[in-house]
Amino acid sequence: MKLNEQADKAAQDVFKVLGTTPDEKQVKYVAAAIEKAVIGAVPDVASRCATVAKASCSAEKSMANKIEREVRRTNELLIANLSSMR
Hints:
With 86 residues, the protein is mainly alpha-helical. The chain has one domain. The protein contains three helices and no strands.
């Protein structure tokens, strides 16, 4: 399922929990906020993963650096893919 579809479903769920019936414009605004939050969280999560990987591989610095670079590269690809799914 695409990110915008997931965000639309999440927006509908939010309104359902609130017990309100939104119009299309409200759903779009909430879905856009959800998309933005998800995309905004990705770099922070990836950075934490890279930090943990680097710390746990400190004995093998070259391996830790390799993992960190790969996590950051994957993060960039993920952001590009999420952005294209809008």
